[in-house]
């Protein structure tokens, strides 16, 4: 039962959330801040405490798959705010949200106003039912909630001025580009080299070009557009994630390398924007993959801590090298970038890695330095160059102008 105290506490927590989103820079415009101030988020997160509902960085889990992994959540406010700002939604627009929860659709409804329209689509009937119920209860019954595999978009409600995707997508299905208005924008969390970046894309001829992007984590896209990433296990709890089917990886040789003593080399390059630096590393060497280790592998001192969250790694035939960071008072952030390397060719890989760190620091040490294009034709022949990623329907080309 909701008491007057609960309502007051929710209002206070909502106001505090908006302040924090502004302070963080996630909310930059009055319009987005007003939407967050208006929608009672706790009505979309039943079963969670009010504190959790209004925490800027918590994405309450709604549903897990048979393997225990999360397949639906209410996204964290800071990420929703960031993506809504990137989408630049104006009153009167027609918007499609891929992946429903209700809350983000309510924010969208606030942003487009009575003259606009929001369609939200989810593949999972339970999530659709839930979103519909919560939206109605919160007074947003004008939002259309549909059940469908969004791989085909929502042709009946198209064209859209904005498409906001809220599941980690391997590719951009042709339907999304077809259903986007000529001056439309699509904001999509796209899998790139083992990591996910939300990218705000505008039309560029028959393809798309990025306006802004940032690191994020999302539940995976299901259905016809789902994708199983290529992984190579090096040791128990140590895995490489690769985009490139053609990159040769000798797992046995790398396992042997992982048991050889590591060398470490330091670059003199500040460690302050790990996500931007990682995107540069991953897209400037065709033999770079993402190295992950679990806590047990770190505790066994097989691989160092940076690999817990995934770290770019140069992969040789018998050796590998990955990014490290150490405290350094001479650096503005207090940390310096470096490299750990294992195997007979460790010295050579570490030198190449350090060279990449210097190239990034000299020319691209800022946010948003990359330009990301989506070409709606598959790469022919299959792309191998470092900044070109072959997808199912098209090709992602990342350049550093
Ligand atoms: C992070 S949740 C959405 C959160 C929601 N936008 C909110 O208000 O915070 C991602 C959703 O994407 C849905 N999804 C995954 N694959 C899909 C597909 N092919 N078509 C439509 N929905 C999909 C999942 O069922 C899940 O509910």
Describe the structure.
Helix 2 (30-38) packs across helix 5. This protein has 401 residues and is of the alpha+beta class. The chain has two domains: 60-225, Vaccinia Virus protein VP39 (Rossmann fold, 3-Layer(aba) Sandwich); 230-363. It contains eleven helices and 19 strands. A hairpin with a 5-residue loop joins strand 1 and strand 2 (70-73). It binds S-adenosylmethionine (SAM). S-adenosylmethionine binds next to strand 2, strand 3, helix 5 and strand 4.
Main β-sheet, spatial strand arrangement: 5-4-3-6-7-8-9-17-19-18
Number of strands: 19
Question: What's the domain count?
Answer: 2
Q: What coarse outline follows from CA principal-axis ratios?
A: globular
Helix/strand class: alpha+beta
The CATH architecture of the largest domain: 3-Layer(aba) Sandwich
Q: How much of the sequence is in beta strands?
A: 25-35%
Quaternary organisation:
single chain
Detail the poorly predicted runs.
none
CATH topology (level 3) name of the largest domain: Rossmann fold
Binned, the helix content reads 25-40%
Order of helices and strands: HHHEEHEHEHEEHEEEEEHEHEHEEEHEEE
CATH class of the largest domain: Alpha Beta
CATH superfamily of the largest domain: Vaccinia Virus protein VP39
Bound molecules: S-adenosylmethionine
């Amino acid at each position: 039962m909701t008491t007057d105290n609960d309502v007051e506490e929710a209002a206070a927590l909502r106001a505090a959330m908006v302040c924090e989103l502004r302070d963080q820079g996630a909310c930059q415009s009055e319009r987005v801040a007003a939407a967050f101030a208006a929608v009672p988020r706790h009505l979309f997160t039943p079963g969670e405490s009010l504190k959790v509902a209004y925490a800027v960085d918590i994405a309450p889990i709604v549903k897990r798959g048979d393997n225990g992994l999360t397949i639906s959540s209410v996204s964290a406010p800071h990420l929703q705010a960031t993506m809504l700002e990137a989408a630049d939604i104006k009153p009167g627009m027609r918007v499609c949200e891929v992946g429903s929860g209700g809350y983000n659709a309510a924010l969208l409804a606030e942003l487009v106003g009575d003259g606009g329209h929001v369609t939200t689509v989810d593949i999972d009937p339970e999530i659709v039912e839930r979103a519909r119920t919560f939206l109605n209860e919160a007074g947003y019954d004008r939002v259309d909630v549909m059940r469908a595999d969004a791989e085909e978009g929502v042709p009946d409600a198209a064209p859209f001025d904005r498409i906001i995707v809220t599941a980690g997508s391997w590719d951009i299905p042709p339907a999304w580009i077809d259903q986007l208005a000529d001056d439309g924008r699509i904001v999509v969390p796209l899998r790139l080299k083992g990591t996910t970046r939300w990218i705000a894309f505008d039309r560029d001829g028959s393809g798309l070009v990025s306006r802004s992007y940032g690191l994020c984590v999302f539940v995976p896209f299901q259905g016809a557009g789902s994708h199983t990433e290529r992984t190579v296990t090096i040791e128990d709890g140590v895995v490489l994630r690769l985009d490139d089917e053609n990159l040769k990886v000798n797992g046995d040789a790398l396992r042997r390398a992982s048991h050889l003593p590591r060398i470490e080399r330091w670059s003199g390059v500040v460690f302050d924007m790990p996500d931007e630096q990682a995107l540069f590393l991953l897209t400037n060497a065709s033999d770079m993959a993402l190295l992950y280790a679990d806590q047990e592998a770190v505790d066994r001192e097989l691989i160092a801590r940076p690999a817990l969250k995934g770290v770019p790694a140069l992969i040789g035939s018998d050796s590998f090298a990955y990014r490290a960071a150490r405290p350094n008072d001479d650096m503005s952030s207090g940390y310096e970038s470096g490299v750990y390397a294992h195997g007979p060719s460790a010295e050579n890989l570490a030198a190449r890695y350090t060279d990449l760190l210097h190239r990034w620091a000299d020319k691209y040490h800022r946010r948003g330095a990359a330009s990301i294009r989506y070409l709606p034709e598959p790469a022919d022949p299959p792309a191998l160059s470092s900044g070109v990623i072959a997808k199912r329907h098209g090709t992602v080309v990342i350049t550093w102008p």
